[in-house]
Description:
- The chain is built from two helices and no strands.
- The chain has helices spanning 2-8, 12-62.
Amino acid sequence: MEGLAELLxxxxxxxxxxxxxxxxxxxxxxxxxxFMKLTATLFRVGCFGIILIVAAVYVLRLLPx
Length: 65
């Protein structure tokens, strides 16, 4: 670890902080992708639900009564 730190021109503590920061950012990226997929799925389901409700109201208005 010390050899890598010397090669990069930083201390071991700074190298540890950089590695920790990289791991935290990577985990954050994975979580963001999961949340974006969930948001896209919910958006599609919501749009389908709205279209279904509008179609049902339209059909009910066509029925006599």
